[in-house]
């Protein structure tokens, strides 16, 4: 189990991925974004997650460059993720989309590139493109996002390379036990987006009672719950105090009993689209 912010899990290809990172979903280009990334790096974060559709890769790249310089670390110390959007899920278009993301970020490579959504009839061509990028050494690891078990099974029927990561909506109201078990069985690292359910869980009475027991915030308890379940997580924040707080989860451990109480909050409730029924 992770003991510090720099601790990593090893993906099935041997690449090391930090357990905790910063997400930038819906953070617009501008100083706030640049400062959030820079601040996270300053406080020890070594993983940054963005996507083409967030339209903020340029600001993320600026934050990375400034953060690296100020923290006195190298690019190799960071794990940077982006994602190919639905409109670019052809073979050639996915490769071009990767190059465009690199250009906007101002980076020579990504540590992880994901297919953002399992668009039926399109994700296999995009996966072949990601396999090419990986085999050519242009990206360190490849994976998917929002894939359910049947999507993964379908993809792996024809894939040369198994996905290394599956990033999905994951929080105490959506525990996805079957998907988590499937990914573990197949050596695919599960990663949580919207781990705090876009803030909707922060006033939950059961979680507040557990948080009080450990002298932690509800957010810290949820993020710790993620890690103890073996799930990589990327909470989003632009506020320095919250960025620090989100990372202060390595000095306590939730008991098995309390882990089960949190697990039992599941309602299969999504705040984001259903991967089997989305339209964008």
Which helices and strands, and how do they pair?
Layout: E1 8-10, E2 16-18, E3 22-23, H1 31-42, E4 47-49, H2 57-71, E5 79-84, H3 91-105, E6 112-115, H4 123-135, E7 142-145, H5 149-158, E8 165-169, H6 177-185, E9 189-193, H7 205-214, H8 218-228, E10 232-233, H9 240-247, H10 256-263
Helix pairs in contact: 1-2, 2-3, 3-4, 7-8
Q: What does this entry look like structurally?
A:
By secondary structure, the chain is of the alpha/beta class. It has a domain at 15-199 and 230-237: Alpha-Beta Barrel (TIM Barrel). Helix content is 40%, strand content 13%. The chain has ten helices and ten strands. It has helices spanning 31-42, 57-71, 91-105, 123-135, 149-158, 177-185, 205-214, 218-228, 240-247, 256-263; strands spanning 8-10, 16-18, 22-23, 47-49, 79-84, 112-115, 142-145, 165-169, 189-193, 232-233. Strands 3-4-5-6-7-8-9-10 form an eight-stranded parallel β-sheet. A two-stranded antiparallel ribbon has the order 1-2. The longest helix is centred in the first third of the chain and has 15 residues, at 57-71. The protein is globular. 46% of the residues are buried. The model has no long low-confidence stretch (mean pLDDT 97). InterPro entries: AKR, AKR5G, Aldo/ket_reductase_CS, NAD(P)_OxRdtase_dom_sf, NADP_OxRdtase_dom. This is Aldo/keto reductase.
